[in-house]
Request: fold
Amino acid sequence: MAFTSQNLTIAAIAVLALFSGVLLVLTLGMKKKWNAVFGVNAKDQSDAFKETLARLGKAEIRLDVLEPRIAVLEAISNIAVQKVGFKRYNPFAETGGDQSFTLVLLDRTNNGIIFSSLYSRDNARAYGKKIENGIPKHPLSEEEKSALEETLKQK
Reply:
């Protein structure tokens, strides 16, 4: 194929068009990134700096509002029930089924209660025992010990 001036002109136009297209794509990509970082209103560095300071000021105001709310939520979460254990069992041979149960409720630092209900044909009894730092304040039955151990394993 011979290189004529017409072929060279077409090739030059094609290369120029390709270069222009690539440049346009890069420019639009940079504009998108600029707007994402500095905001849509920023036209130059001065505007970008002002826009950034304005956004930073808004973020500080939001933080000032959120920090006290977060502190309250953290305080509540420390004493809220976070670990729950439950075990059904049959403590008496003369009754049928697992009608008795033990419920363990602990907070983040393993403080809470063990609530047990013992069912027999004649009556039902309920017991509540305090737990501090994972240690019971009253003697526990084997079922209560088992339920507490399983609950303490939870994260």
Strands lie at 83-89, 100-106, 112-119, 124-132, 135-136. The chain has a mean pLDDT of 85.
